[in-house]
Amino acid sequence: NKMIKKIIITGGAGFIGSHVVREFVNKYPEYQIINIDALTYAGNLENLRDVEDRPNYTFVKADIRDAQLVSRIFEAFKPDGVIHLAAESHVDRSIADPLAFVMTNVIGTVNLLNAAKETWKDNSEGKRFHHVSTDEVYGTLGEAGLFTEETPYDPHSPYSASKASSDHFVRAYHDTYDLPVVITNCSNNYGPNHFPEKLIPLCIHNILHNRPLPIYGDGRFTRDWLFVIDHARAIDLVFHRGNTGESYNIGGFNEWKNIDLVKELCRQMDDKLGRPAGTSEKLITFVKDRPGRDLRYAIDATKINRELGYKPSVTFEEGLSRTIDWYLNNQEWLDHVTSGDYQRYYEKQYSKS
Ligand code: NAD
């Protein structure tokens, strides 16, 4: 759609957002990409070093909880599209502090919806609000079955409850005000730039430092994993070609029990580090399960495949291998993140202007 020129991407300094920003900045030199991010603990502009000087990229430090600020930004840029990824994203943190998740994920989303509605009130032709969400809104599965776009919402954690609520608001703005929205619900992502509080980067980091690999319960929890760059490709596809008012599940038909995933990771790490097979597996430690944990998530990604021809570009083994290689080659990034040094990058880089 050649009409779309200016796109606001929220949460572009985060894990998935940075890959979406990179994909769009590289692929669409004719677009102006405006990255809006509050730079919380999860936001890291070092993720975007390679694109920060591009003429079609602008960074704005802003908090989406601030309704007036959000509407001033929309007035200034008059975006044609929004891809909304900014969120509090860590389930364990949501158990400790649910209200922070309501503020950013629910109220922040409604602030953006209001600003888009105001900006496009005279003409919403060719405009698009793309809300990026999770498969966790669907609740949990038993041993069998898959989540489809028709699966009723049944969130269990404060995180998934806040994301479910934001999805409902996005749909309500479509049904009530005709806002041209589209929603994607994706399975667990992994890949470069993943904050080391999450399972895969945490295990890579701990194997490198010979620390225990914590696995909840008995490791039978099952997740569907997608390489983050394949998520960014799917977002590009749905943003441009998805049907207005609809939602699309994104997944790779790639289910792993946590214990099997960590064992595969250990196998690849031993291999890459030249250690005897079985070395890293000895670090596996079972820890007490957290409350309300869902047994199994698995996505039926038939619709996006059938309607938009989407397929992931890498197998899990390849994606995992590329991810490990990235962490091994970017230990400075990992050290900055674990020491908190990455938070000074913004001051160094942007205090000049
Ligand atoms: P992340 O935590 O790595 O990044 C979130 C980004 O949002 C950070 O840069 C942070 O600074 C920014 N942010 C947080 N609060 C903000 C606020 N109030 N105002 C402005 N910016 C703020 O998260 P992620 O893993 O990249 O997830 C991005 C989105 O994708 C989220 O909406 C999440 O729900 C969704 N999602 C994530 C996964 C996954 O596996 N990580 C899977 C499916 C969907």
From TrEMBL:
Entry's Gene Ontology molecular function annotations: dTDP-glucose 4,6-dehydratase activity
Catalysed conversion reaction: dTDP-alpha-D-glucose = dTDP-4-dehydro-6-deoxy-alpha-D-glucose + H2O
EC number: 4.2.1.46
Protein name in the entry: dTDP-glucose 4,6-dehydratase
Cofactor(s) needed: NAD(+)
Keyword Lyase: yes
EC category: lyase
UniProt record similarity statement: Belongs to the NAD(P)-dependent epimerase/dehydratase family. dTDP-glucose dehydratase subfamily.
SUPFAM superfamilies for this protein: NAD(P)-binding Rossmann-fold domains
UniProt keyword Nucleotidyltransferase, yes or no: no
InterPro entries: dTDP_Gluc_deHydtase, NAD(P)-bd_dom, NAD(P)-bd_dom_sf
GO biological process, one term: nucleotide-sugar metabolic process
Species per Swiss-Prot/TrEMBL record: Sphingobacterium allocomposti
Alphabetically ordered keywords of this record: Lyase, NAD
Domain NAD(P)-binding: 8-322
